Amino acid sequence: MNTKPVFHGSDIEKICEYYHLKKEDITNFGANVNPLGLSSSVKETLAAHLDVLSSYPDREYTALRTVLSDYCQIPADFILPGSGSSELIAILIGARAPRRTLILGPTYSEYSRELSFSGSTQEYYHLQEERDFTLDISDLCSALEKGRYDFLILCNPNNPTSSAILRSDMEQLLTFCSEKDIFVMIDETYVEFAPDVSEVTAVPFTEKFSNFCVLRGVSKFFAAPGMRLGYAVTGNRDFLKTMKEKQIPWSLNSLAALAGELLFRDQDYIRRTRELILSERSRLYDALSQCPAYKVYPPYANFLLLKIQAHEKTAFDVFETCIKNGLMIRDCSSFQCLEGEFVRFCIMLPEANSRLLHVLKD
Q1: pLDDT above 70 for 36
Q2: Among candidates 183, 184, 191, which has minimal Cα distance to 158?
Q3: What are residue 141's phi and psi, to 5 degrees?
Q4: Residue 6 predicted with pLDDT over 90
Q5: What phi and psi, each to the nearest 5 degrees, are found at residue 45?
Q6: First-last CA distance in the chain
Q7: Is 12 in contact with 23 (CB distance < 8 Å)?
Q8: How far apart are CA 2 and CA 10, in angstroms?
Q9: d(Cα 328, Cα 1) in Å, to the nearest integer?
Q10: pLDDT tens digits for 185-209?
Q11: C-alpha 184: how far from its chain's center?
Q12: Within 10 A of 213 (CB to CB), how many other CB atoms are there?
């Protein structure tokens, strides 16, 4: 009988109980959250403005949408704020009411969960390990046409592979989907971590195509998962109106709306985050690329995916070795479409990264 426990990325309490560890002694490499934490200037401003909770937020979130418009360089009426990406995923799927959905996998399980409430069929298109999980656009388009799908879900950069669809391929894909009346949902949770954001984001295409919607949030890059702030971007104003009609009034609370106005204007925090992640990611990628025990894939997000090459070692073995050293990584066994032994870990502060690198190489 297999008695190994099954853990997921947010199960730190369950893990600490199983291994008799204290939560404060664990460095969490499994959550993919910016290690700098919430911006100190944003914290100070929010603490001084808690009185906003005594008022209803603006139903139109005009100030927040104006800030996001400047941040994304698109019209404000392309933007719908919401209570995190999770709410927006549910609203988008409900508004679109797809019949046949294709999901680019392996990926985040929430897409499948929300689709299960919609009545849509759902199937996966598997990214291939042999291609380092990079997408074969022509093959995907062929699969979309043969399967007569009307809805496509992408995470870009993708979780857990950290791979990305770049600008030219994305334009080709959106053009094909537009011609075939296929709507595309693109989750860009990790796009701000990309080496060159402009080479990955699909947001500029919202002024050219009306058959897709981009979702973003503040959980990972801005280290604010508890804020539950997300936003949808699409050039299809009619579809955005339908999404808004399905959204509960004042979906985003007053404090989160104010926080969003502050976060997206904090250029110093954005610069420091990108400098940290890009330099540490390169250091870890280069070091692990020289280690024969693992295969590491070119990363575009703030995490790396490793394939364990040693036949006698499993992902659980590596996870357990790390957790016993106070380092929590992700055993990727639970991800759909990921065959083999894989682990994932995010970029933390340099000292913690060095500790993890030592354990992995050991």
Answers
A1: yes
A2: 191
A3: -60, -40
A4: no
A5: -65, -40
A6: 29
A7: yes
A8: 22
A9: 25
A10: 999 999 999 999 999 999 999 999 9
A11: 16
A12: 26
- Contact assessment for residue 132 and residue 158, using Cβ atoms and an 8 Å cutoff: no
User: What's the whole-model pTM score?
Assistant: 0.96
Residue type, 87: E
Query: Backbone phi, then psi, for 162, in 5-degree steps?
Result: 65, 15
